[in-house]
Design a protein that fits this description.
Blueprint (H helix, E strand, L loop, with lengths): L8 E2 L6 E8 L3 H27 L11 H34 L3 E5 L4 E5 L3 E3 H25 L4 H16 L1 H13 L5 E5 L3 E7 L20
Antiparallel strand pairs: 1-5, 2-7, 3-4, 5-6, 6-7
Length: 221
């Protein structure tokens, strides 16, 4: 099994794989920690990108038309909602292309999610589906950030990109586990959205020797 190439998807867990690690964002403690880290990353990026774009001179915003500022704020709020939907759809599109299986979408108080209704995927499939939103949406947001002049619309992109990057902390956690913890190991992942369970392959096969039937010895005369 160690030398066999794993398929993209298995409906049932193959023999030899056992649960080894679990990330469950449905747990309040895990969800809160992820959101705190995401918020800290987003805030740090907002400050860094703002200073890189505008420098210390942001007086132009004081002279900006209030109507434009209100429109920009509304656009940002709508964009955030749309981005959450598109982010999960991107996960789903990758899973659908690679597995052709049914998906499940949802949202809790701490996390929005997309995952497979059932089954297990190999490391490559899991990495592609997990990283797809981070890579694809980072590219167009960075391009927009570089091309937009230093006006209020660039600020909208800065905030959107920062929240996007921070919000990918769970995806990056899964990626880190796959790339480092299971760098040289075969692994299958069950991903129902908020919970990822990692099953590592073990070549230790428990073999029980057959118990010989004991017969009573004849009494010696």
């Amino acid at each position: 099994m160690e030398k066999q190439k794993l398929a993209n998807y298995y409906k049932d867990l193959p023999q030899g794989f056992k649960e080894d690690y679990r990330i469950d964002a449905k747990k309040t403690s895990v969800g809160v920690v992820l959101n705190v880290i995401a918020g800290a990353i987003a805030l740090a990026l907002i400050v860094a990108l703002y200073l890189a774009k505008y420098g210390l001179n942001s007086h132009q915003f004081y002279n900006e038309d209030p109507v434009i500022l209100l429109i920009a704020a509304a656009v940002f709020c709508v964009s955030m909602i749309l981005y959450l939907v598109v982010h999960e759809l991107t996960h789903g599109a990758a899973y659908k292309l690679l597995t052709r299986q049914k998906l499940r979408f949802g949202m809790t108080l701490t996390v929005a999610y997309c995952g497979l209704k059932e089954g297990y995927v190999n490391k490559k499939t899991s990495l592609i589906a997990t990283l797809a939103p981070f890579v694809l949406h980072s590219i167009w947001m960075i391009i927009a950030y570089c091309l937009l002049p230093d006006n209020v619309w660039a600020l909208v992109i800065i905030m959107l990109f920062s929240l996007h990057f921070g919000g990918c902390i769970g995806d990056l956690w899964v990626t880190g586990i796959l790339l480092f913890k299971y760098r040289k190991k075969q692994v299958l992942v069950s991903d129902d959205g908020p919970c990822q369970v990692f099953y590592a392959y073990s070549d230790e096969v428990e073999e029980q020797a057959p118990v010989a039937e004991q017969t009573p010895q004849a009494e010696e005369e």
